[in-house]
Every structure is written in structure tokens, then in C-alpha cells.
């Protein structure tokens, strides 16, 4: 009896259809931002997750949208926008200095230490 070994060049495993649908799928970034500005806590949470998912691949597109949210009258909106911008900067280093200075008071001490306000 002959055994041909493991077919390591065979079909992809696990199949792509087993993976969950990414959270940012189905709406544009602007639609998610509008949803985040809404008052429904569950919808806002879903929007934050979707925006974070989009920011992982396209931080340059998300940064201006979140920067605009810093001027929102809702404390909830600008607080979450500030935290998301802090995390984007922590992971990518792409948030400009002027925006980092605006978000500094709204983020945790850990993120404050990573914002590098003295240089750009």
C-alpha cells in the first residue's frame, strides 16, 4: 500500500465562506459616521466597530471623518472619535499633530503617552 503524503498544495483551508463578514461591509464610511452620530447605543456601537474595521485598511480615509466629529456638540461623539483617532495613531502613526493636540484631553493616559505632541 502506497501513501502519497499530505497534499499541501490542495484546496485552501478553511474555506473563505467560513470566515465572518467584515463589520464594515454593506455601508460607506460616511453612512457609518452618520450612524455613529445617531442616538441609538447599539447602532452607535456597531458603527464604531465598522469604522475601526475600515480604519485598519484605510486609515487615511477615516482620519478626516473622525477629525470632523471632534467638533460635534455631542460629548459622546467627540469622545469616541478622539479615542478612535488615538488608537489609529498608536497603530499607524498617521494622525497629524494638530489633531493629536485636539484629542489629547479625551484619551486615556496610555494613549496620551503615545501621541508624541512634541514632534510631528
Characterise this structure.
The chain has 120 residues and is mainly α. The protein has one domain. Helix content is 57%, strand content 0%. The longest helix has 18 residues, at 75-92. The chain is elongated and about 75 Å long. 22% of the residues are buried.
Fold blueprint:
Layout: H1 29-37, H2 41-57, H3 59-69, H4 75-92, H5 97-103, H6 109-114
Helix pairs in contact: 1-2, 1-3, 2-3, 3-4, 4-5
Keywords summarizing the entry:
120 residues; mainly alpha; 6 helices
- Count of domain modules: 1
* Secondary-structure element series: HHHHHH
Percent strand:
under 5%
From the spread of the alpha carbons, the general shape counts as elongated
Distance, first to last CA: 67 Å
Radius of gyration: 20 Å
**Alpha-beta content class:** mainly alpha
Instruction: Classify the helix fraction into a percent range.
Output: 55-70%
Total number of helical segments?
6
How many strand segments?
0
- pLDDT below 50 for ≥5 consecutive residues: which ranges? none
Amino acid at each position: 500500500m502506497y501513501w502519497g503524503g499530505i497534499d499541501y498544495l490542495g484546496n485552501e483551508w478553511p474555506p473563505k465562506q467560513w470566515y465572518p463578514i467584515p463589520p464594515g461591509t454593506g455601508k460607506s464610511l460616511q453612512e457609518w459616521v452618520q450612524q455613529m452620530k445617531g442616538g441609538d447605543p447599539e447602532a452607535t456601537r456597531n458603527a464604531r466597530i465598522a469604522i475601526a474595521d475600515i480604519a485598519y485598511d484605510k486609515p487615511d480615509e477615516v482620519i478626516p471623518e473622525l477629525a470632523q466629529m471632534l467638533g460635534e456638540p455631542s460629548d459622546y461623539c467627540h469622545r469616541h472619535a478622539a479615542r478612535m483617532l488615538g488608537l489609529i495613531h498608536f497603530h499607524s502613526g498617521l494622525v497629524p499633530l494638530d489633531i493629536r493636540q485636539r484629542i489629547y484631553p479625551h484619551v486615556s493616559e496610555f494613549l496620551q503617552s503615545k501621541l508624541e505632541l512634541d514632534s510631528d
